Amino acid sequence: MNELSVPRPNNLDAFWMPYSDNKYFKGTPRLLARAEGMNYYTPEGREVLDGTAGLWCCNAGHGRREIVEAIQKQAAILDFAPTFQLGHPIAFEAAARVADLTPDGLDHVFFTNSGSESADTALKIALAYQRARGQAQRVRLVGRERGYHGVGFGGMSVGGIGPNRKQFGAMLPYVDHLPHTHLPAQNAFSRGQPEHGANLADHLESLVALHGDTIAAVMVEPVAGSTGVLVPPKGYLERLRALCDKHGILLIYDEVITGFGRIGTHFGAERLGVAPDIMTMAKGLTNAAVPMGAVAVRNEIYQTIVDGTQAGIEFFHGYTYSGHPLAAAAAIAAIDIHVREDLPGRVRAIEGYWEDAAHAMRSAPNVIDVRNHGLIAGIELAPREGAPGDRAMRVFRRCFDEGVLIRVTGDIVALSPPLIIEKPHVDRIFGTLQDAIHKEAA
């Protein structure tokens, strides 16, 4: 165990924290100083069981020695090299390792540094492809209500979570949205994919009727995570795929959350049986040890863009840190663990126990829905009158103080533990959550 002593900061003012109530936190800080396996530790040494894999990202657990050593070794060999008109071997190796896991035919990988960058990159690839194939009128992008695709202006525009957009005025032009798939009156307390709602994909026909042949791409999450775990209805993705094919529209999956084993296969596309044209990823790609994202594209998309340019740069896009050597080393080491320990198989082995534990929450006060798929669960609570989000936030704070980290979005508790979780961890997560919900019953 790493016994590094981590002091408590003596000044919390300088760091403007993301997606946080800064005023509350800096008056009542909850700090994490160390992590190992399934646990975080506070500066005082108190153990906190991680029920969220950090932010959906530490799929192999924390502090994996193989990843740490790979980063250390690479830093000593090559700390940085540009990938604009140059290359370094480990970036190519990392891309090949990612392509080994993606669905058949998605064999070309563009590296980014986050899920947000991956989303914007995927949208730009879609537009570039449509232009390269002689469909330059296809400039419109379609997302989905309650969708989350990061915080860049492209992903935010295509995304459909209101609070993420309302402070920032105008979004990208030429964007439209499909309806979300949340149908609580019909699908409440579904186990896995709900029965009702496949017909919601047919709204794409209405958008085509409205916009004609100007739609370049549709972007959706296979399982919507940040909005509170919305699992696609049976047949929904199949219908969306068929409609995209019918109308010459690219289908983009945002697999930042569902990638790298989260629902029991390498990517959600495999488990759900419907492949996209373009796929974004991040988070589990490096087990979050170094920031990195990626976009995998169907071979025909890559070839159309690259071969369609006679000479020079084919795609005017990229990042200083695309394929960063340390990130590439972390990705290779994380993928080695993913394959060697069969993390998707571990998910499938325990997901039934996880599902039963999640749905046992149905009897807790104010629980109005439970949703799950693989090692994801959403527990939706009835909001307090006049104070939406207050009940869940108080549950979050109670759980942390009792040694379990959960995540809340609105009045929904979202759980996504490291994929190395075992049954005693499951029992402790849901037992602690059950107690906290009871204490916030009033």
Number of helices: 15
CATH topology of the largest domain: Aspartate Aminotransferase, domain 2
Structural class: alpha/beta
Largest sheet: 7 strands, mixed
CATH superfamily of the largest domain, by name, is Type I PLP-dependent aspartate aminotransferase-like (Major domain)
Distance between the termini: 42 Å
CATH top level assignment of the largest domain: Alpha Beta
Topology pattern, helix = H, strand = E: HEEEHHHEHEHEHHEHEHEEHHHEEHEEEH
Mean pLDDT: 96
* Form type: globular
- The percentage helix is 25-40%
Radius of gyration: 22 Å
Q: How many β-strand runs?
A: 15
* Stretches with pLDDT under 50, minimum 5 residues: none
The CATH architecture name of the largest domain reads: 3-Layer(aba) Sandwich
Task: Kindly estimate the percentage of residues that lie in beta strands according to DSSP.
Answer: 5-15%
Cofactor: pyridoxal 5'-phosphate
Organism: Roseococcus suduntuyensis
InterPro entries: Aminotrans_3 (IPR005814), Aminotrans_3_PPA_site (IPR049704), PyrdxlP-dep_Trfase (IPR015424), PyrdxlP-dep_Trfase_major (IPR015421), PyrdxlP-dep_Trfase_small (IPR015422)
Pfam family, one: Aminotran_3
Write structural notes for this entry.
36% of the residues lie in helices and 15% in strands. By secondary structure, the chain is an alpha/beta fold. The chain folds into 2 domains: 22-60 and 342-439, Aspartate Aminotransferase, domain 1 (Alpha-Beta Complex), CATH 3.90.1150; 68-340, Aspartate Aminotransferase, domain 2 (3-Layer(aba) Sandwich), CATH 3.40.640. The strands form 3 sheets. The protein has a 7-stranded mixed sheet with strand order 4-10-9-8-7-5-6, with helices on both faces. The longest helix is centred in the first third of the chain and has 18 residues, at 115-132.
